[in-house]
Write a structure and sequence with these properties.
Blueprint: H1 2-22, H2 30-106
Length: 111
């Protein structure tokens, strides 16, 4: 029973020694402060550069969107012209067919 009582006491004693050894303070110098300031300045410059590039990319996307709108308008114009041509060709064909069958209709001679 005595053996069990010594073991936790020794562990608690060693724990306090290890805790004290782990709490050694690291000196904070002016050089460290200067390094942190330079790092923050570099981060800010990178942020501004990234924002400028993102704005440039957004401008390019907007230009591409405008270009697609122009392309779609052009395609609608081409489709409109093609539709008008087809309607006029079919209209002329039907009109010509009606005109050429008119004399035969008067004679009641259907072929």
């Amino acid at each position: 029973m005595k053996k069990l009582n010594y073991n936790p006491c020794i562990q608690i004693f060693l724990l306090t020694i290890f805790v004290k050894a782990g709490t050694k303070e690291i000196p904070y110098t002016i050089d460290d402060c200067d390094r942190i300031i330079r790092t923050e300045q570099k981060v800010e410059s990178v942020k501004t550069e990234m924002n400028a590039r993102f704005e440039a990319v957004n401008n390019r996307f907007e230009a591409i969107d405008k270009r697609f709108d122009q392309l779609f308008n052009f395609l609608w114009a081409i489709i409109g012209i093609f539709t008008a041509m087809m309607i006029s060709v079919f209209g002329f064909a039907f009109w010509d067919r009606k005109l050429s069958l008119a004399p035969l209709k008067k004679q009641d001679q259907w072929i």
